[in-house]
Structure to design on (608 residues):
């Protein structure tokens, strides 16, 4: 590894994908999953209940102009008694956000290591808490387990990822009757005030707060997505299916079968993608080049690659873009 | 201001503790040889991103030499001590590698070597009166021969202001391993598909199949890995890694050598293979 320049402290940059998060939760022994949230409308949110937290991930793509004000409508809670840790290592941002959410969900089942980390850091200030979390080897290994394995030479070269900037993660969840915003880069948690417990409950306030926040950015300047931290629906669905079948409610049972099937398809896709994430693809890349060579197609492929590169450069030149990509 | 005698893009590399491996640091930098204000000959390494000169060595004539280690990796070694400083050439094009290395060794041997040293200009001018900075595009010091050839000066300006040279790679591995190239291959040579199965993830939830292969080559994870491998090959530092793939070390020095080596191996396998293969070449 390069000397002195590496402030990742061994934390790799992960993809912000629900499959990655859900696998991390499994490793932490937590019976929750993370799903993509494409819309904040009441129906979409209701379908994901029981819902524990919303994760808002974003990056600014415009460098001009400031972001919104620090507390974006809420106020700092300097006496926050719950779990809040500062983000100390940038690459750990996703895992840190998850931990900030989990640490504030009452009566949550967790594995022993996470339970110990939580109790060990009780009473610590956010900065120290963040540092302790970031130095937990088992946690870092769990986090890194879904990034490509380091083939020695590739690791030492520290090759840049295609989008170098990490997304920033902010968690919204209900704590002690108020909607809180937990942002590891802010000094304190932000309290956005209380919510009506009837009807949609806290998610309504979360929707309003998040939409208000999005509206403060100039159009097109914000790239973001939303994730939902929720109970794993499969056990509940399977229980529902059993009871519906037992009471001969076949059409309702059929609907549940469809839901279970969709959920399983999604899990299979996640498992497939995670297996690709863990894999060192250099051997496959070599074998594919060799296959092209054996079939006598490598020369042509090379020529078409040259043409593709030329065309790409022409397009960039035409746009007057910066030519500094080696 | 010091007179710049020679400059070219280079990164540093460091020996991994207790091993014989030297690992490159990806930081963009430049080796700059100067005749310092102190009248001494300086070998410096500058970080092109921060602009900071992180290494500044004073060298005496014929004490040091710049020797090739492998690929584009070189070591600055000394006869007077055990010091070793490793570097790797970072210019996108290898066309001038030899020229840089020859020139640097010339200067290490004799800082006043004919190359680009103008003794009248550098020793007679007090520093303050030199209106030039190294990045200026006006004729540097003397009205006789320019201290630095204009073409090199332009490159030097670009280099010192942190820009890369305009040379772009001719082609990339990511444009070779595309579905557009690979899918027809699977169709025309289905017998090659099982040869790929051993390279699929061992924990793939579905059994190896042509369909799984298609999904994989289209996946962002695979494409990102190919892109990384492509960039890694460009550094010329993958000698060890490609040996683990059963290829000669030369194959790790660039994209072109890699493809050549893979083709050579495929040809060798084919000619020593079964008679069915020979029939294909008629």
């Amino acid at each position: 590894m390069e000397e002195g320049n590496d402030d990742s402290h061994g934390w790799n940059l992960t993809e912000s994908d629900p499959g990655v998060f859900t696998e991390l939760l499994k490793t932490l022994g937590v019976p929750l999953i993370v799903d993509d949230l494409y819309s904040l409308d009441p129906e979409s949110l209701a379908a994901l209940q029981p819902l524990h937290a919303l994760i808002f991930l974003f990056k600014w793509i415009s460098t001009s102009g400031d972001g919104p004000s620090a507390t974006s409508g809420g106020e700092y809670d300097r006496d926050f008694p719950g779990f809040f840790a500062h983000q100390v290592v940038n690459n750990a941002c996703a895992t840190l956000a998850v931990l900030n959410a989990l640490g504030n969900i009452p009566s949550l089942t967790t594995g022993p290591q996470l339970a110990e980390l939580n109790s060990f850091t009780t009473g610590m200030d956010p900065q120290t808490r963040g540092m302790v979390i970031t130095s937990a080897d088992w946690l870092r290994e769990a986090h890194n387990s879904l990034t490509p394995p380091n083939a020695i030479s590739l690791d030492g070269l520290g090759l840049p990822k295609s989008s170098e900037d990490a997304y920033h993660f902010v968690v919204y969840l209900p704590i002690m009757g108020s909607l809180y915003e937990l942002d590891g880069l802010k000094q304190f948690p932000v309290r956005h005030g209380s919510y009506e417990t009837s009807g949609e409950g806290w998610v309504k306030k979360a929707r309003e707060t998040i939409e208000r926040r999005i509206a403060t950015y100039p159009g097109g300047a914000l790239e973001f997505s939303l994730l939902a931290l929720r109970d794993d629906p499969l056990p509940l669905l399977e229980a529902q299916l059993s009871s519906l079948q037992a009471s001969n409610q076949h059409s309702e049972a059929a609907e549940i079968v469809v839901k279970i099937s969709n959920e399983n398809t999604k899990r299979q896709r996640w498992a497939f993608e995670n297996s690709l994430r863990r894999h060192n693809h250099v051997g496959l890349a070599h074998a594919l080049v060799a296959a092209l060579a054996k079939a006598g197609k490598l020369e042509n492929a090379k020529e078409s690659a040259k043409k593709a590169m030329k065309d790409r450069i022409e397009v960039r030149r035409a746009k007057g873009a910066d030519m500094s990509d080696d | 201001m010091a007179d710049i005698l020679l400059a070219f893009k280079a990164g540093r590399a460091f020996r991994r503790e207790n091993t014989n491996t030297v690992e490159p640091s990806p930081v963009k930098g430049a080796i700059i040889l100067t005749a310092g204000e102190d009248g001494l000959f300086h070998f410096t390494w500058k970080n092109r991103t921060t602009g900071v000169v992180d290494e500044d060595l004073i060298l005496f004539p014929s004490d040091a030499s710049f020797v090739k280690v492998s690929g584009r990796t070189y070591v600055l070694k000394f006869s007077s001590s055990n010091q070793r400083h490793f570097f790797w050439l970072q210019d996108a094009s290898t066309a001038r590698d030899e020229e840089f290395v020859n020139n640097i060794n010339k200067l290490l041997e004799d800082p006043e070597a004919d190359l680009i040293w103008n003794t009248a200009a550098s020793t007679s001018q007090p520093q303050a009166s030199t209106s030039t900075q190294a990045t200026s595009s006006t004729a540097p010091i003397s009205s006789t021969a320019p201290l630095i050839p204009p073409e090199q000066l332009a490159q030097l300006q670009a280099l010192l202001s942190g820009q890369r040279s305009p040379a772009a790679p001719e082609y990339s591995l990511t444009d070779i391993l595309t579905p557009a190239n690979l899918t027809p291959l699977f169709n025309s040579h289905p017998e090659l598909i099982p040869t790929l199965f051993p390279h699929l993830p061992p924990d793939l939830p579905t059994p190896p199949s042509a369909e799984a292969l298609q999904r994989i080559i289209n996946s962002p994870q695979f494409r990102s890995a190919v892109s990384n491998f492509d960039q890694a090959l460009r550094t010329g530092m993958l000698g060890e890694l490609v040996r683990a793939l059963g290829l000669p070390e030369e194959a790790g020095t660039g994209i072109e050598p890699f493809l050549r080596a893979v083709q050579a191996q495929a040809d060798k396998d084919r000619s020593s293979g079964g008679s069915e293969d020979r029939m294909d070449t008629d």
Q: What stands out?
A: Residues 233-280 of chain A form one domain. Chain A touches chain B through 57 residues (CB under 8 Å). The two ends of chain A are 22 Å apart (CA to CA). Confidence is low (pLDDT under 50) at residues 1-5, 63-67, 151-164, 322-326 of chain A.
